[in-house]
Design a protein that fits this description.
The chain contains 8 helices and 3 strands, in the order αααβααββααα. By secondary structure, it is mainly α. The protein has a single domain, classed as Winged helix-like DNA-binding domain superfamily/Winged helix DNA-binding domain (Arc Repressor Mutant, subunit A, Orthogonal Bundle), CATH 1.10.10.10.
Length: 152
């Protein structure tokens, strides 16, 4: 059965709600990062988050992990570099490739940033049961995987 057959016109409402939730979370994180003295955006945080998991990766690896295009990633890394959170170092085997590394500031901001994000997410999911949270996560993972295949 097709999506439209199952859900009728509610698809538009669902799409609008996802966008609204995403924007609200980004606004909250932006404000909370700023209040905590962290000078990066939620979008920049996604890059830092990946680097906190594995430092010293290529720009392409960051694109793949964050699902951002190359021009967007270049802009994010440029700004993070200007703010002294990351540094680009030319790959020793291929000078055309840059390896992105965290600076001391980038490394030291991890705990506070993760604390800010955890607090914001706890506020966002207040009143949502564990079962509902897991269901929403599974559904959005399926939707993302379905879309990712056609966009790669």
């Amino acid at each position: 059965m097709e999506y439209s057959e199952k859900r009728g016109d509610v698809g538009l409402v669902f799409s609008i709600m996802i966008g609204k939730v995403s924007m609200a979370i980004n606004r909250k994180l932006y404000r909370d990062f700023k209040s905590a003295g962290l000078e990066f955006t939620p979008e920049q945080w996604t890059v830092l988050y990946c680097l906190w998991g594995k430092d010293g990766v290529t720009q392409q690896e960051l694109c793949n992990k964050t699902f951002k295009d190359k021009p967007s990633m270049t802009r994010l890394i440029d700004n993070l570099e200007k703010q002294n959170y990351v540094v680009r170092i030319a790959d020793a085997t291929d000078r055309r490739t840059n390896i992105i590394h965290l600076t001391r500031l980038g490394k030291n901001s991890r705990d506070l940033a993760n604390e800010v994000v955890l607090k914001a997410m706890n506020e966002a999911f207040d009143g949502v049961s564990g079962t509902d949270y897991e269901l929403a996560r599974r559904v959005l993972d399926i939707v993302f995987e379905n879309l990712k295949v056609s966009l790669v």
